[in-house]
Amino acid sequence: MLTTLLITFALALLSSALPHEKRALATVYTRCTAANTVALTFDDGPWVYLYDVSKALKAAGAVGTFFFNGNNYDCIYTADSQKRVKYAYDNGHQVASHTWSHADLTTLSWDQLHDEMWRVEQALNRIVGKSPAFMRPPYGNYNDLVRQVAAARNQSVVIWDFDSGDSVGATVAQSKASYDDIIRQHPSTILALNHEVYETTAHQVLPYAISKLQAAGYRLVTLAECLGKPAYMSNPSPPLPGAWTC
User: Fold this and answer.
1) Is the pLDDT of residue 1 over 70?
2) Which of 5, 113, 165, 177 has the maximum number of C-beta atoms within 10 A of its C-beta?
């Protein structure tokens, strides 16, 4: 009798620990799909070099994608940061989420993950009236829980298939050589990882990469265009100026 009760109790505990339903997983994109396109993406902002990145792209008739943090190099709600976000959006670039604090998402709980994603969505909606349809996990780290939360928030996860190496100590010469190598291979598409927070990326590597990529016949487009997907969730809310803080 005691054994039966123990087994029943154990089964009840196991049942309660199992999810009641299987949660959907967000799509993970690692490459573009539109032929002859390159999506130049820039992480970790909004930071001071955003203007120079944007100007280099626009001078070449190109656009890029900025994955913004909420509170990494600076608080997204400072007056300067809000101006940078608006400048990127107003100049035709795509703005997207790099989560709030640049934490390793694989170390966080369900609630913590929602908070990391929601706070950036809220900030971008407040500043430019748009909620991003794409999220890039810091360090490129994600697991099924991250994908479940992203799916619940109607976001897709974006990684990359080319890394300029600027965030891991690559010199200007090394980053340029990396671009030369990938262009020499001439894949149909390139989804390139860069970081807007490095002066050398904005002023030396990026102009070089733009020139070389365009000479090789690539169109430099937003992530959304290279995937043929909407950049933002359906959200008619206008920008809401305010004095928010991090």
Assistant:
1) no
2) 113
Q: 95 forms bridges with which residues in the sheet?
A: 66
pTM of the model: 0.90
pLDDT digits (tens, 9 = 90+) for 74-133: 999 999 999 999 999 999 999 999 999 999 999 999 999 999 999 999 999 999 999 999
Contact present, 129 and 237 (Cβ < 8 Å): yes
Residue 130 contacts residue 240 (beta carbons within 8 Å): no
Instruction: Give DSSP secondary structure letters for 17-86.
Output: HS-SSPPP---EE-S--STTEEEEEEEEES-TTHHHHHHHHHHTT---EEEE-SBSSSBTTSHHHHHHHH
81 in a structural domain: yes
Q: Tokens at residue 171, please?
A: 């010199």
Boundaries of domain holding 127: 23-227
**Residue 115: inside a domain:** yes
Domain containing residue 163: CATH number? 3.20.20.370
Instruction: Sort residue 112 into left (φ over 0), alpha (ψ -120 to 50) or beta.
Output: alpha
Closest to 64 measured CA to CA, from 85, 84, 40: 40
- Cα radius of gyration (the chain): 20
pLDDT above 70 covers a percentage of the chain that reads: 89
The separation between CA 201 and the C-alpha centre of its own chain, rounded to angstroms, equals 18
Is 3 inside a domain boundary? no
pLDDT band at 243 (very low <50, low <70, confident <90, very high): confident
User: How many independent structural domains does the chain possess?
Assistant: 1
Can you point out the beta strands (E) in the chain? 28-29, 37-45, 65-68, 94-97, 134-135, 156-158, 162-163, 189-195, 219-221
